[in-house]
Structure formats: C-alpha cells, structure tokens
Queue: 2 jobs
Job 1
Amino acid sequence: LRVHIQFQKLNELQWHELAARFTLGGAATVVTSLIGHGFGPKIGGLFLAFPAIFPLSATLLEKHQREEKHRAGIASTSRGRLAAALDARGAMMGSLAGLAFAVMAWQLIPITGLYPALTGALLVWIFVAIGLWYVRKLHPWSRPAARTASSADTNSSRRRLERSRAVRILRAVHHHHGRRLMGISSSLKQMTKAATRMPKTGKEASGSTDILETLKQEHDEVKDLLSRLVKSDTAAERKSLVKQIKKALVPHTKAEEKVVYDAVITVKDKQVQQDGYEGYLEHEWASKTLQRLEGISNANSPEHHAAAKVLKELVEHHIQEEESSVWTDVRERFDDAQRLAMNRAFLAAKQRVKIH
Amino acid sequence: VRVHARDFCSWPWLILPKTAIEPRIREGLQQQPEIAGAVVALHFDMIEWLLRFLIGGGLVTVFSLFGDVLRPKGFAGLFAAAPSVALASLVLTGTYESPAVASASAHSMIAGAIALFLYCGLCVHLLAIRRISSGVAATASISLWLVVALGSSVLIRG
C-alpha cells in the first residue's frame, strides 16, 4: 500500500465536524496553558501530550462506521469499535514520535531559539512517525495470520492471532470507509443482508460456515486425489481418479471464480485485484492441463504420468498461493457475515456448474 | 504590583514577544516613580487567551485534515496523536513567557508522551479485544494517562 493524498476526501467533510475539531483543539490549548500557569511548566508540560482530541475523534469514527453499517442493513457495533481501535493503534506510533518531538524541543530551544527549534522538532515528528509506520508495515508480526498460523498452538499466541485478525479486519474497514462500503457486487451485498437475518442453524449448515472453511476442505480433497493419481500405476484406477478430479475441480474453480475472485477484483486495491486475476490465470492453466490429461488415451503411459504430475504441481502451487494471498484479502476485506454469504453463494454456484 | 503591557505600548503588544515589550515597560515605569522598583508581573489578557484558542484550534484542524486526506487510512491514524496542541502551546508559551519555560514544558512532555503511548495501547486493547464503546474506552483510559504521566514525570524530573 503506497502512501498518497486523496484530496476528494475533503468534499466529504462537514463544516460542523470541522468546527467541533477547531473548538476542541482551541479549548485544549487554552486549558493546557492554564494548567501551565497554575502549576508551572513541570506539570503543565505533561498536558502537552494529553489525549484531549482522541476521545472525540474515536467516538465520531465509531458513530460513522455504525451508521454506515446500519445503512447497509447490518447491525454491527463491533465494526465501529475496531475502526476506532485502528485509529488508536496509529496514535500509538504518533505518540512515540511525539516523544521524539518533546526531546527535540526540550534540547533545541535553548540552543537555536524558539522557532527554529519547533520547526526542527516538527520535522522530526513527521519523519519518526512515518518511519515507525513503515517499520510496522514491514515487520513480520504485522503479516496476516494465515502465514503464521503454524505457531498458533499455545493460548497466548492464539490470542495474539485473534488480536491481529481483529486489527486486520478493521484496517480493511478503515481503508474502505466511505460510501463504497466493501467494494463488492450488489448481489453479494444482498446475500450478506440475507445471511445476517438468517437464524444460525448450527455449525454444519451452509449458512454458518465460513467460505474459507469450505474452500479448505475442497482443496484438501483435490490434493489427496492428485497425490493418489501420481502414485497409482494401473490404467483403470488412473482413469477413474482423473474423472473424480474433474468432478471435484471444475465446479470448485468455476464457483470460486464467480463468488470469490470476482468479489476480490471489485475491491479498490490494485494488489488485491492482482491476486484475483492471478487466481483466474492459474485456474485456466490447471483446466488446460486437465483437458490434456483426459485426451491421453493410454492412462498408464509416460505422457499421462507427465501430465498428471504437472497438474498436481500446478494445483498445489495454486492452492498454496491462494491460501495465503487471496484468503488474506478475503479475511481483510469481508466481514464474518459476508463470508457466510459467500459460502452460500459458492455452494449454490457449484450446483449450477455442468461438467461435460 | 500588577501592571499591564497595554498601559505602556500601543496594540502590537498582543503579538510582540515579551522581550520587546519589557524595555518599554521599564521606560514607562521610570515615569511613574511611585511603582518603580516593584516586581513586574505581566498580566494576561483575554485577547491572549483568544489567540491561544485560535492558534490551537487552527493547528488541530490542520493536522486532522492531513489525517483525512492521507491514504491508507491506517497511516492517517498517526495524526490522531499529532503534537498540534503541543506545538501551539510551545509557540505561545515561548513567545509570551520565555523560551526557557517552553523548553522546560517540552522536558515534561516526554513523560506525557510515554503516558499517551500507553493510553493508546490500552484503547486498542479495550476497543479491539474487549469491544468496549469508544467513548467509554477513550475516557476511562485517561485515568491510566494521569497515573503514568505523573509517575513518569517524577522519575524523569524528580
């Protein structure tokens, strides 16, 4: 994600919000000065880093998110809270940079005088804040849970994962906050609404299964079939395995393209879109190889073995990549209710796929 | 004896630094022998507070606008803790009082910033894990800020 400026966001601002910020900022400055006058700079200085603005901005943010969700027909309070938590996480880095600002101002004012010192301290704040943001971005622990899930055995790391998942979800919400709520097709949105209205009927019902759980199951199934195919050396068994693979693979890929990739491609983020298109291409290659495999009449020939091995490699590579990239996108960009709706749409789409 | 800068020079005293006003006050005091030699305390006027209000409000608004236009949104969260109030206060304190007082305030701000960092961390926990409402979480956490700020200021400044 590249840092950039979006001026059109200024149009969405409302004047009373600006007025509220202005008033609060002014009041905070006056109160800080009063404390400084009353108790001296030692106590007054503390209040230069008092969280005066944050409670207001967090409350407004939560309210906006909740209203947006409400408009989309989803009653969700936790979403707004997660968005506010994201803001607080950014503010953590901002306050560390504030520490650098304070050190610079304290040391520089006696040396360079007031204005150069404060200009310097402000520049230091900007560089440290941006630097911290990039470090956090690049650091491994900010990577999605899917890539570090193997270490999720102990209770504490599970909780850490839960936390990182929560924060990832809210990062996505935040990124898309605005009218383009989740950037998905309207049909999917309607299904989402339906899914949230639907009563929970137990873990096994399609309505309460995450799309990623279903995909994982099917991936494992195909992987198992493919490794059996590669190991097998009787023509009859190989032929039957190819048939089973086709029956498993074709509906899965078509439905996944329709429900998952198309949804991912509508997200307004180039990297996410690329993941979706990559999935399409890899499906295409797998499908071509499968056709080739079917065209080979002697199922125990070196040609058949070669095609089977290539198909296995293609599918395994694709699954591995998809489970880290596309799944991360889906986890980040779509909330639980949307993923339930995706699962229902996926199962329905699979029914409609005809195998020739 | 409290005197006011207004009594000794015309309106620009509002925006003049104290160092520029003092010679005029001294000059004026010599013409009033009955208070000459008295300890002079500059009296703050409502207009100075208005100025603090305007500059503080303006800086907070400008920083929040940065937060609005910068993308990705998580990056904008940085600006939720921008030192806008600190910058306004330090500029005004340095101008109206003295740069030494501003420097001393910045020294204490170190403790405040440590407290703010922990405050934000607590907010993340309360909001993302406990899912407490923003208003309650952000307000209740202020008690942590107070404890840490006062505690660490004792450690840092004795």
Note: Chain A is about 75% helix and 0% strand.
Job 2
Amino acid sequence: VNLSTVEERTVMTPKRPIAGLAALLLIGACGAGIQSRERPGDQAEIVVPPMEASTTSIHVDQDPPPDSTRPEAGAIDPPGRSTSTAEPAPVAEEDTTTTTTSTAYDAIDLQSAFEALNALDSMLGEFESEVGAIDLEEEEGATP
Amino acid sequence: MKTRLFAAFVAALMLAMALPVAAMAQTDEVDATEQSEGPRDRLLEELRERVLFQLDRRLDRIDRLQFEIRSSDTVEPEHAAHLTEDLASSHGGLTALEAMARSATTFEQLRAIQQEMVTEHRIFALRTPQTGLVLASDFGVSVAAHLGSVGSTLAEAAARVAEAGYDVSDVEALIAEATDLTADGLALVDPVAETVLPLEPAEFPDPARSIMESARDDMIDGRQTYRDARDSLRAAGRLLADIVGSDAA
C-alpha cells in the first residue's frame, strides 16, 4: 500500500466540499427530472423544454429544391428561352426572388383545358341533337 | 167422286208447292236482317279499335316524355314539375277515354271520344314539342355555363403565360369574344322554357304554334351562337399552346 497516495487523497478531499455537494445535488436533481419524465401520468411534474431549445435542436437534411427555372412538362418557358437548352439554374440570393420566379414559371394545365373543350364539343353536339329533334310539324293523326 | 178426288189432289199438290216457297221467303228475310246489322257492328268495332290504338299511342308518348324529363340532368325542377303535372293530367284524361271507348255502343260516342282525345290534350302537336323545347332550353343554359367555365380556365392560363412575359392579347381577345357570344346565346336560349311552358291545348293552333315556332328559331340561333363561342375558345386554346410551345392542342 502506497501510504503517501492515501495520505494525499485524504488530504485533498476536504478542499472543495461545497463543489462536491453541489455536484451531488445536481446529479440528484437530474435523476429526479428523468424519473418525472418516465411517469407520463403525473402531469404536474412534466418538464417542458423551452421552445428555443427544441427549435434549434431540429435539423432535417433535405435535398436541394428542384431547379425552379427549368421548365417541366406543360411549364411556360420565358420568351427567348428554349426548353431543350439545359442552362444552369441561377442562384437565388434571397428567398423572395425564388418565390417570384417559381410563380411566374408555374406550369399551366393546357391539357385539361383542351379536355374541357372536347367535353364541350360533346355537350354541344348533344344540345344540337336536342334542338334538331324538336318537331313542330307532327300531326295529331286522328281527325274524327 | 172422281171430281172430289181430283180436287183433293190438286189442293195437296198446291200445298206441297207452297211450303218450300214460304220457307225460302223466310230464309231471304233472315239473310236480309243479317246483312243490314253485320256491317254496322263490324264498322263500330273497327272504329273502336282505331280509337283505342290512337289512345294507346298517346299514352305511350306521354310515358316517353315523362321518361325524358326524369332522365334530364339539367331541367329546372320547377319546369320539370310543370311538365310532369300537365302530362299526368293528360294521362289520366286519356285513360278515362280509353275506358269509355271500350264501353261505347254508338258511332257518335266513339267520335266524341276521338274528338276529345285530340282537342283536349294535343299530345303530338303541342305537348311533345313543348317538352322538347323546355328540356333543350334548360340544357342550353348548362351549355352556356360550361362555355363560361372553359373560358375561365383559358383566361387563367393566359394570365399565367402573360406573367411569364408573353404577349397574350390575341388570346384574351378571343376569350372575350367567346364570352360575349356565350352571353348572346344564353339570351336566346334561356327564355324559351318560360315562354312555352304555359301553352295549353286550347291555345292550339294559335297562338301556340307561332309561339313555339319563334321559340324553336331562337333555339336554332342560340345553337349557332354557341358554336361560334366554342370555335373562339378553341382558337384561343390553340394560340395559347402555340405561344408556350405546348403540344396539348
């Protein structure tokens, strides 16, 4: 047994009694906090973390947004730009710029507009048949 | 003695000859009676069958018209109720006439039934075209709504294309033209139902016939105006597709 070491520890321990006590209290408090979280039925002891902490702790890695300036099927090309030309997407400096650009190049659904026109043709044909079927010349055919 | 025997013989001979003559005369009389009553009954039955057939045709037509009203998705409920009520009333009247025709015993009774069947109901000359005009008018109103909907869709698309920097003034002009034409067509087609609905058999032929002719002319003009509106919308769509380089058209 190295007595000098034992002596040193014996001598050093009482030097920070308050810090040790604080550490023990902190550990105890943490333990109590954890215990209270493990009891969901006891509403009064639930510790709600501050909003800032939860906000900052959330971090979701997302793929970069699709190139909003590249027209897709049915999208509007700006004047003078061809859809076949693959140009690099301009880097938007601010979010507002990106929003404006994507609104301007939103796809228009011409396909559905033409489907509605075709449905209109069918409806108009039916209407024409109905009008054409009106016969004012039909006789009663039973003259006494 | 000989004279008496001869007289008896002659009397017997005359009697023998007279009996068949009397029998033949009676037969001719019966035949004459049959000939005078048989054709009359046959004619009465023929007329009865004809009247019943004509009544059946009208009842069938009423059933068909009521089916068309029920099948229509676009008829106004008030218009449908008005038409259905008129037709149901005629159906009841014609069914009563059918029962009367079955029990009629004279030509005069059957002719009166025939007269009432035509003049009181006018199923073919009035109720049929009246129903057709009302249904077509209400359908025409829904066609106008559809034209307006397609115009709005194209107008929204044109506005978005304009936001991208294109000149869509021609497209907008075509859509505006279609909107005006649709309004013109609607103004022709829409009032027809309310115009012809109140017509009654007592108003036939005049003024019912002339009112219905005018209404049909409006329907034909409205139909043409709708066609023109549709053509303008289609032209607007094609132009818009050309502008954005879409192959949707």
Note: The longest helix of chain B spans residues 2-71.
